[in-house]
Amino acid sequence: MTTDGTITLRSAARSHTGLVRKNNQDSGYAGPNFLLIADGMGGHAGGDVASAITVSRLADLDREPSGEDALEILRTSILEANDRICRGVAEQPELAGMGTTVTALLRAPGNRFALAHIGDSRGYVLRDGELQTVTHDHTFVQMLVDEGRITPDEAETHPQRSVVMKVLGDVGASPDLDLTLREAHVGDRWMLCSDGLTGFADVDDIARVLSEVSDPDECCRQLIDLALAGGGADNVTVVIGDVLEGTLDTVQGSSVGSVHLNPKYATIGMNTDVDEPAAETQPHYGNGDIPTDTVPLQTVSGSDKQEPTAEVVPPSQRTDSESSDRDAPAEEDDLDADDDEVEKRSYLGWIIAAIVIVAIAVGGFFAYNYVSNHYYLTNQDGKVTLYRGLDTTLGPIELSQLEDTTDIEVGTLNSFSQDRLRGSIQADSRDEADRIIDNLRQEADKSGTVSGNVEDAGSPSDPAPSPPSSQAVDPSDAITEESQ
């Protein structure tokens, strides 16, 4: 129900590294006036930094609402966090490419909430026993769903389901935020979470826990347990806020995840002396956002640079002798300059060709290295099967090969794991793939039906089956990809 009185949030937050990842790139915050989730990306070199910078900057919004526009405050603060991330890259170039999702809920005047969202973290509200999604994923597969090219069920197991189209950070684009105002109803339960929860727990189980567990902190713990039971192959962070009438005695908010584990990250990007970084790391502006007081730089070629000379006499004032003495050498200089220019262009063409060849070679090397070190698990003839490469094709070319066939029967796993294996479970290394196999084996062992070790796919007695084919997808417009 709505209320004319004061409302507050009884909130809690928890974060877990998961069963596969080595570091936690999620950060979260829960307070009486503000909830926030940030899922960092950029590999080991920056995802945890980007999320920590974002939460440390936005946590200051946890205060009583004023008469100001809450949506504008939220938008401006998120853009300032984006600038800090870009300045952090200028300070530490090894962090280039780091970014983070953001989903934030801020209490606004008039007992409403300002909601900001970018990326694939999610916001939900449980109202009258019904769980409603209040955010829209900025992902490649969601774009395919919106266009009617795949169904929502197909999106859940799509090989490119982790490709994110919009994030905050050093990603070459101005942040495009979803901003909305929401009515506050006493009795509502709000939940913000990273895809480490929604990617590994069934939404019906999530709704059940949210409905049955009244304490927000205990509810966060049980939801994380759901994700871990589903494989836990990603960091998982859950933030919950219950809408109450009145105020609470305790008004202190709490941070979790990377921002809590790595407080030193909060100072990265605060150096205002790096406001004018090199061109590669300057803040990015969207269409129409380019400052009007900037002008294009004009370059001068070497042949156009001249040393100061004696006073030049205009042609109309020259004597015949002066014209002949000065004009003739000038023509010869022009011819020499033209020859020099032609020679420079010839050299420039060779240099550009060499750069292109080297770039193609380097790109091919990195592409081959990525494919060679990427793995995925799938259901092949009822067994959990490991492939090396990508779960897709390039025309007639298969981009994967059979690596191992395990003795784990897919039918012994829970329904959620079976659904994931109908598509594929991605892994960035063989060690990560082995950890996922161990988790699935432990799940299957509960039924007492699995024993033995992994079979070698190269065994002569067990010819290798063809890898499952999948629709070739070209997420060329995507900004970045998170490993599932």
From TrEMBL:
Enumerate the spans annotated as PPM-type phosphatase domain.
10-243
Keywords, sorted A to Z? Hydrolase, Membrane, Transmembrane, Transmembrane helix
Q: Specify residue ranges for compositional bias: Low complexity.
A: 469-478
Task: Supply the EC number(s).
Answer: 3.1.3.16
Q: Which Pfam families match?
A: PP2C_2
State one molecular function term (GO).
Answer: protein serine/threonine phosphatase activity
Database matches in InterPro entries: PPM-type-like_dom_sf, PPM-type_phosphatase-like_dom
Q: Gene3D superfamilies attached here?
A: PPM-type phosphatase domain
Q: Does the keyword Transmembrane apply?
A: yes
Protein name (record): Protein phosphatase
Taxon lineage: Bacteria, Bacillati, Actinomycetota, Actinomycetes, Micrococcales
